[in-house]
Write a structure and sequence with these properties.
The protein has helices at about 50-60, 80, 85-90, 100-105, 110-125, 130-145, 220-235, 250-275, 280-290, 300-315, and strands at about 1-5, 15-20, 30-35, 40, 70, 95-100, 155, 160-165, 165-175, 180-185, 190-195, 240, 320-325, 325-330. By secondary structure, it is of the alpha/beta class. The chain has two domains: about 1-105 and about 150-260, Metallo-beta-lactamase, Chain A (4-Layer Sandwich), CATH 3.60.15.10; about 120-140 and about 270-330, Arc Repressor Mutant, subunit A (Orthogonal Bundle), CATH 1.10.10. The strands form three sheets. It has a seven-stranded mixed β-sheet. A five-stranded mixed β-sheet has the order 8-9-10-11-12, with no helix packed on it. Helix 7 (about 220-235) runs antiparallel to helix 8 and helix 9 (about 280-290) packs across helix 10. The protein is globular and about 65 Å long. Bound molecules: zinc ion (ZN). Zinc ion (ZN) binds near residues 75, 77, 177 and 196.
Length: about 325
C-alpha cells in the first residue's frame, strides 16, 4: 500500500492498494479516500490471496476493516468487485455504492442473468459461432462467477453527484468498458480515479453488453466509450489513478491514444473487408484479424470485432444484412 504523490500545496491523502488477481491483466488497484468518511474504491477478486493482501496492506498502514465507512465500485467486473461480499461479511455496517447498471450485475439478479445468457447465446449464434464455441464461452462466464459472490448495493451513484462523505469528489458516468462504469473526478486536484476506463500500460477492452431492459436494443459500447473519452478530454485532468498499472501523468496523451486506437482498429477491419467483395460474419473476421489468438479468448475477440463493426456501421462505412438467421457485414 502506497501513499500517492499529490500536489504539494494541498493537504490531501490517497492510499493505493496492489491486490493480486489470477487474470492476465495482473494486480488490481483499490484506493482509500479520506474526508468526513473513509471511502474504499474497488476491492479485488474473491481469492484467498487477494483477501490476505488487502487486509495486510490495510493494517500495514494503520487501518482496520471497520475504519472504512463505505465502498464505491467503479464497475461490476470480478477483479474489482469480488472481495466486497467478504468485506461486508466481516464489516456489515459498511455501505456499498454503485451505478444502477453495475447493481444489476453484482446483485446477480436471476431474471437479468438468465436474460443476459440467452441474449448472448443468440448473438453468438447469429454472428457465426458454433454451438461448441458458445458452450466454451458460457463455461468461462460461469467460472468467472466463482470470483465474486452476490452483493447488495445500498445506494446508487448518479452522474454528476458528489460522493457522500467525500464531497470534493464528483461521480462521472463513463460507460464503455462497462455500461455502469463510473469514474471519480476531483476538480481541485485535477485527479481522476479511472477504474478500467483508462489504463496507462495497455488498452482497456470494449465489451459487448446485453440490453439492460427487456425489449431494448443492446447498447453500442464502443460509441459510449468514445463519448466518455471525449467528455473527459474537456476536463482539466493532470493525474489518473487506474484500476491496473502505473499512475498516469500524461492524461491527455493517453486519452487521445485510446480514441485513435478505436479509429485505427476500425480502419484495419475496413481494409480487410475491402480486399474482396465478400460479406463477413463476426466470426469470419475474428479468424482473419486474429488467426493465432481468437480461439483462446473467443469472447474478447468477438467483442473486439463486433464493437469496431458497430463503429464502422455508425460511420456509414459498413452495412449489416441479416439472412437465414445469420448476420453478415459488407462494405
Ligand atoms: Zn474491468
Amino acid at each position: 500500500m502506497n501513499e500517492l504523490p499529490l500536489k504539494k500545496d494541498i493537504d490531501y491523502k490517497i492510499i493505493s492498494f496492489n491486490i493480486p488477481t489470477p487474470f492476465p491483466i495482473g494486480p488490481v488497484h483499490s484506493y482509500l479516500l479520506f474526508d468526513d468518511k473513509i471511502t474504499l474504491v474497488d476491492s479485488g477478486p474473491k481469492t484467498e490471496k487477494a483477501w490476505k493482501a488487502f487486509v495486510y496492506q490495510l493494517n500495514e498502514n494503520g487501518f482496520r476493516l471497520k475504519d472504512i465507512d463505505q465502498i464505491i465500485l467503479t464497475h461490476d467486473h470480478v477483479d474489482h468487485s469480488g472481495l466486497l461480499a467478504l468485506i461486508k461479511e466481516h464489516h456489515p455496517k459498511i455501505r456499498i455504492f454503485a451505478h444502477s447498471l453495475t447493481k444489476l450485475d453484482v446483485e446477480k439478479n436471476k431474471d437479468y442473468l438468465e436474460r443476459k445468457i440467452h441474449f448472448f447465446e443468440e448473438l453468438y449464434r447469429k454472428n457465426g459461432l458454433s454451438a461448441m464455441q458458445i458452450e466454451s464461452i458460457q463455461q468461462f462466464y460461469y467460472t468467472l462467477q466463482n470470483y465474486a459472490d452476490p452483493i447488495k448495493v445500498d445506494d446508487e451513484l448518479v452522474d454528476g453527484m458528489q460522493v457522500p462523505g467525500n464531497k470534493e469528489w464528483q461521480v462521472l458516468h463513463t460507460p464503455g468498458h462497462a455500461g455502469g462504469h463510473i469514474t471519480l473526478y476531483h476538480p481541485q486536484l485535477n485527479i481522476l480515479i479511472a477504474g478500467d476506463h483508462i489504463l496507462g500500460h495497455t488498452s482497456s477492452g470494449t465489451f459487448i453488453e446485453a440490453p439492460y431492459k427487456e425489449g431494448e436494443e443492446r447498447p453500442k459500447s464502443i460509441l459510449q466509450y468514445r463519448n466518455s473519452l471525449n467528455r473527459l478530454k474537456q476536463l482539466e485532468i493532470s493525474t489518473i489513478y487506474s484500476g491496473h498499472g502505473d499512475v498516469i501523468l500524461n492524461a491527455r496523451e493517453v486519452i487521445n491514444r485510446e480514441l485513435d486506437r478505436f479509429e485505427k482498429r476500425a480502419n484495419e477491419l475496413y481494409e480487410q473487408m475491402s480486399t474482396g467483395s465478400n460479406s463477413y460474419t463476426v466470426y469470419d473476421l475474428m479468424q482473419i484479424m486474429y488467426p493465432n489468438r481468437f480461439q483462446k479468448h473467443l469472447n474478447l475477440y468477438f467483442s473486439e470485432v463486433l464493437s469496431h463493426l458497430d463503429l464502422l456501421e455508425e460511420m456509414g462505412r459498413v452495412k449489416k444484412v441479416e439472412t437465414m438467421n445469420l448476420v453478415k457485414y459488407h462494405i
